[in-house]
Amino acid sequence: MNETMNMDIIRHASAIADKASFIAEDFAQVLFPKTSVIFNDRMRSNARQYLRSVIGQVEQQICAIATDELGVTQDMLQKIANGGEGQSYRVLEDSGLFKTVEIVQHLFIKAQQSELAARLLQKISQQDLEATLTRHLDHQDPVVAEAAMGLLVAQSKTTGAAGEIAASLADLSAEMTYAFAWPVTASLARLSGLSGPQLQQASERFLAAHDESAGVDRKASRLAQLVEQSGTGEDNIPHPMRDGLALFIARLARQTGLTSNQIVTFTAEPNMARFVVAMRAADFPVQEALSVFAALDGGDHILTAATYREADRDRALALVSSWTAPDAYQNAKRILGDDSLGDRGK
Amino acid sequence: MTVSGKLAEPVRGQVDADGMLLSADPLLMRLHLRSGGAEGGPLAVPELAEICRISRRLGMNLSRAAQASDDDCRIDMWVETRFVASDREQPLSLAIIDWKERPYDDSDKIDPARERDFDRLEGRGAIRTDTALRIIALQMPDGSGQLSDAIGQSLLDIYDVIPPSAHARLLEAVAERQPIRNQRMREKGGSQRLFLFQGQPLIDKAGIFAGYRFTAVPDDPEASGPEAKAMTGKLISDNLFGFQLGPALRQPLGKIIANAETISSKLQGPLRGDYASYAKDIASAGRHLLDLVNDLSDLEAIERPEFTVAADDIDLVDLAHRAAGLLAVKASDHQIRIDLPDENGKLPARGEFRRSLQILVNLIGNAIRYSPDGSVIKVRVSGDEEFARVSVTDQGDGIAAEDQDRIFEKFERLGRSGDGGSGLGLFISRRLAHAMGGSLTVDSVAGKGATFTLSLPHRKEP
Fold first, then answer.
1. Mutation for testing the B interface, residue in A314, A322, A327 having most B CBs under 10 Å
2. Does the structure's ipTM exceed the value 0.90?
3. Cis amide prior to B348 (ω within 30 degrees)
4. Does the beta carbon of B73 lie under 8 angstroms from any beta carbon of chain A?
């Protein structure tokens, strides 16, 4: 063992020692999950891949603004701006800065959306799925047709191949872009040693230039709003095989008053129970509900007509209405109702 | 005005760093003003103000759906914010690229103007708030002080919750979008008047919470007045209903009716069909009892020597339309059409607004009660130099000549029962008409319907 190797293994061992206390914490999360949602290996892999890709794109954009627009001449930043390998993910990965509820929830939604897209592709061909997007292009109302074209364009810009997770900066909401931009800026400042305000200014410019209206989710929400306003008859019942996944989720969200993220989350839960309740609240006819369930189900679960009919619509409406309350309120209510509070909870 | 389509051009506005609406296209300005805003004041449409706040906090442009509502309709919008210049202190530009107005669900909601008439008829105040309990419309009963500054303020900044209730409990009910029942509140500031609030959450068809509509009744207002003090020491006062039984009965009856209606409408959850019918029966019986209490209170009031009425400038055509509007649901339940005078016409008269409306509601209500289903009730107006008249003609059984005086007597039912009447309505109506310097007469032939005519002093318009 030579001296360099010695130093490396010593550094490596110290780094491991620093994190040793978290082993039990990590293992506990695997052994004793708090929800019944199952995260498969593909979801974990997709989430990491997505995060790495988004961080890389944010980093590249900020570096490009800093070097091209603000005249910063720093080797590392210039390399990243020109498409070189990103550095921030490595620094941020272990920092805990990605462990915010906001970011982790976003990663989960993206991973689950990718799951749903993969499940859908087992039931309908990619070609047919793409054809659904053209359905509203010749809508009699030109505003709807224009919004449908907007969604089509936004979807065509996503980078993921069929069944793979798509990571596009344009698809980020303003809040998520903001949440990613500042940790990346801090890591670039540390890595480059730049102490001036240029990196901060570059990030501000990057954020100001971000246009969330170009993203698939926003385009789908707007189209859903317009379609729901003008829809009648069969058109009024959303279906992933007729609308495509993004528009279907946006339409169901709109009909129930829930958010698109909630709908996606429901599809990951055991038996998609809350998803079924949401369809019941939106008054989906039995056959449509069974068909939607089958299209999005990833296991061998079966929703029967009897089960669906037995779900009382009034109760479904009341439940869905309670889920539309602000998250903070629902969380606080759950904690206060928790038996672990004992008498203090009364 | 209703905009039913989408817009070729966005509706635009500009909001400064302090949230002030610097400029706005007419549609946006109308919504802003209806939401309680003022020209040049803070943007008063909560949903838009929230988007502007997020946009400014992040320093980023947003593109989001928003829903706003005013008294007439709900508005679905797609809103985009844009910073006019790179300087974040500069105004934020709002562009609303979709603007779709849709009326509230008629089956669930009473026309706001009609609801206000109900409130005025029953001496109630009404307050409409947004989702954050900010007041966006307010109309309080006479004498409760001017609260024009209240628009835009939180309800809890204007009224104190009276113990044993607490702010927290009220806020919890609001967070859960629950109806609020019999909440005692005290007006802050000079008047310190007490009110009993009832609140209904406004939720649209999509299940989206849009705010609250409160009604406010002065809480036992006369009990602290000089008359109430004068009767101290008497076990039962001369004003039994007005000061003692009336207020004491109204509150529990109100609770019974409200709870029975909640049960029958299945607001709290599913219910067996026959139980819902029982609850409807309870609500109906409760309303009948409440009507009786109100009639007895009125009876007592008009028989007091100090009873007076106000001399408002009223228009009998307008009153006829309002009264018919209040009874529209009842008439439609019996497929009865109310034929009204031309809405554009005018017949000025002098009398107390609330009392005149009360008389007309009584006359048209009786006409509905005693007319066959599918018939027509005609309401006509006429006038001469001295009197303005409004007549209500039904196609019922009519009243025999020998009974025509008796029907204006107290508790006279002409042998009828079980139809929801108390036998006091016409007596009270005639006494009120006389108190206003007018008269109430009947013209009828047995078997050929009846015409009741209210005459009030004519008012010459300047």
1. A314
2. no
3. no
4. no
